[in-house]
């Protein structure tokens, strides 16, 4: 498959979505921790893609399974104490997920950049958008199963 195959014939092995700055104020599963509209839109789009595996890229913890239980935190991507590409590489190696393909990265530029340090071939359907409005529209199109090209 090429990077521009249509969604209706695309079956990702892995989708990686971003965490979010809006969180619950208590310990919770990663699937429940992030309550912001952008994270939720990414999650719904990822679910619609029906991947074999879905991970959240946490700015503090790195790669999280939905059932991982974490405490709330306040670390944005790019901060001094944020997760690094080296940590992600170690986590992906330990989880034995380095060779998954195809991989889809939903999220903004910092998120995609980190994902691509592990999976350089990751598809990035939000690439080329000119802001949050366009990203939310593409996420809605993915969620609704419209013909949407993956970049």
Question: How would you concisely characterize the structure shown here?
Answer:
The protein has 151 residues and is α/β, with parallel strands linked by helices. 33% of the residues lie in helices and 15% in strands. The chain has helices at residues 30-33, 37-49, 85-94, 109-118, 132-144; strands spanning 14-18, 28-29, 53-58, 62-65, 69-70, 103-105.
Written account of the structure:
The chain is an alpha/beta fold and about 150 residues long. Helices cover about 35% and strands about 15% of the residues. It is built from five helices and six strands. The chain has helices at about 30-35, 35-50, 85-95, 110-120, 130-145; strands at about 15-20, 30, 55-60, 60-65, 70, 105. The strands form two sheets. It has a four-stranded mixed beta sheet, sandwiched between helices. Strand 3 (about 55-60) and strand 4 form a beta hairpin. Helix 2 (about 35-50) packs parallel to helix 5 and helix 3 (about 85-95) crosses helix 4. It is globular, with a radius of gyration of 14 Å. The termini are close together. Mean pLDDT is about 90; it is low at about 1-10.
């Amino acid at each position: 498959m090429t990077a521009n195959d249509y969604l209706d014939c695309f079956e990702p092995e892995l989708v990686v979505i971003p965490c979010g700055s809006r969180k619950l104020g208590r310990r919770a599963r990663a699937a429940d921790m992030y309550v912001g509209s952008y994270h939720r839109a990414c999650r719904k789009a990822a679910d619609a893609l029906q991947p074999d595996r879905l991970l959240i890229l946490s700015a503090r913890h790195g790669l999280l399974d939905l059932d991982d239980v974490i405490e709330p935190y306040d670390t944005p991507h790019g901060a001094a104490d944020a997760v690094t590409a080296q940590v992600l590489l170690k986590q992906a190696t330990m989880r034995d997920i380095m060779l998954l393909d195809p991989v889809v990265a939903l999220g903004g530029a910092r998120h995609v950049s980190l994902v691509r340090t592990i999976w350089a071939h990751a598809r990035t359907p939000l690439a080329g958008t000119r802001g949050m409005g366009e990203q939310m529209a593409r996420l809605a199109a993915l969620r609704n199963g419209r013909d949407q090209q993956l970049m």
